[in-house]
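Priority: low. Protein: RNA polymerase sigma factor CnrH. Input follows.
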Amino acid sequence: MSDSLRDPDGLAKYEPYLRMLARIKMRKAYQAKIGESDIVQQTLFQAIKSVEDFRGESEPELRGWLRQILARNIVHLDRDLHRDKRDIRRERSIEERLQQSSMRLEGWLAGDGPTPSQNVAVGENVIRMAEALERLPDGQREAVQLHYLEGMKLAEIGSVLDKSSGAVAGLLHRGMKSLRSELAAQSRIS
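Result:
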């Protein structure tokens, strides 16, 4: 197992990935009080403090471990803001939804059944994709995340964003065009 997975400085590269997941899963009402960057910083701080407790052997396991920490932080935020008692069903639900979004992203990037060597490339691409998503205009970023990472249909996204299905289709088209262009440019540079 590579010591690089336990390198506290190396965890910072997952910030855009975690911010993307937090943005998707945090309730809009929370984001006015506590931004996704705050919850991600708390998650990374906790991960750095407990990096020696990480028992995984691969980058996908590390991302899963980070998602678990993020999910716990979101659940705690939910509980603190609502003063509810801990609800293990809600905690599991958030963890499962974070994992589903992450799996959709990884599947999207991997295409059909990656080989072990492609798994490494997928891990790197997950981070690059999260960074590229961060740079999209808000509407495009939300539409792409809701459609591709949450699996929502155009009409559902339109309802969330208060836009017509045609407007959502335009946001998706422009967002995907920008992502493809940026990722292609990054590939040429690498």
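The chain has a mean pLDDT of 76. The chain has two domains: 3-114, 136-190.
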